[in-house]
Amino acid sequence: MDKLVIEGGTPLRGEVRISGAKNAALPLLFATLLHEGPSHIANLPRLQDVRTTLNLLIELGVGVRRSDDGTAVLDAANLLSHEAPYDLVRRMRASVLCLGPLLARNGHARVSLPGGCAIGARPIDLHLQGLEALGATIELAGGYVEATAPRGGLVGGRVLFDQVTVGGTENLMMAAATAQGKTTLENCAREPEISDLAMALRSMGAQITGDGTSIIEIEGIPKLGPMKHTVVPDRIEAGTYMAAAAITRGDVKLVGARLEHLDSLISKMAQAGVEVRREGNGLRVRHHGELHAVDVQTRPYPGFPTDLQAQFMALMTVAQGSSTVTESVFEKRFMHVPELNRMGADIQTKDRTAFVRGVESLHGAKVMATDLRASATLVIGGLAAQGRTEVLRVYHLDRGYEAIEEKIGALGGVIRRVPQDWEDD
Ligand code: UD1
Q1: What pTM value is reported for the model?
Q2: Residue 188 annotated in active site
């Protein structure tokens, strides 16, 4: 399995282009199932999760043509299957996002249950309850969800999410776009990726309003046309490079990053003493001097993103003073803590809170990546640490960070990938 070898201590400087957002791209790709013909998506990131999604779409019968410039044409004229098999869903939980569009398009969908995962139980009960409110019959058998629409198709209804769910909101938006009549979704997720999906669905003719607020209304129409859409820049990738620039006392321009999508992180960065400002078509992040300890608590958007919790914690490990990092979205998302401690951090956890005592500096170590964002955190730690860090199991990173070692290398970071089966010196 590939590993990344990092020699820490070099400030990151220069420009990095922020890729299209993984978490926007995946639902957009599934939404192309809703049109019986070709759709066009631009700014698709080159990521393992995107490849997994395309493989699933190909299995369902979608024709996929992908170009080197990040565009793709997806032709869902003829679907061959309505099943998302265990092997693909196991690899990528977001595969459950095919449930809503398949059900809307075919009247039937069979999707493997995702099961447990490294960051908590992550059930899909809210997706299923929502689809039931649109008239679907749901059965669970042999580890699969079997969903069937009424004979005349899904019917608009009212869905009140018990808890804010990004994927649940997306699945229901896609299912309701062609349901008969009006659907009202309440207590919706408000993430920029939800608005990106709404915009793409509108490009197909869908009648959706209220995205970006907690109430989304959808007036169903019988058929959707082709999608034409450009994926929004990845705010989580941008936040990750922001943390890397800050911890190395660097000066980095994040080309394409959007200030308005990163408000909560930027205000915490400011409290920590890191300067972030809009510059041209992106953001510039600069830091020198001391980092100050700042408490954070994750929340659904516009709160502090759970997907940046680990990276911010890396920053706090070398801040002056003590801070707390509280994870309110997922129940198990501190797997990076023991690994950061191996690098000399001083972190203790109790329930959903991590108590971080700032240390003078981190030191290089061999560490193990356990999930996507935890892996990015170890890279950030490694860039700041004294000496050499080896991050093992980087396949997690490849799921969600496009060309990470090229991007960091171009900023002056000393990082290289040692491929599988190679002996390191
Ligand atoms: C999405 C993101 C992920 C991010 C998360 C929270 C994608 C592909 N992934 O994941 O990167 O960390 O949002 O911002 O966009 N829940 C239930 N029942 C459900 C659905 C969710 O109990 O039916 C719970 C989850 O266990 C979790 C919370 O709700 O505790 C939020 O999960 P959700 O917003 O659904 O996350 P995902 O859509 O899976």
Answers
A1: 0.97
A2: no
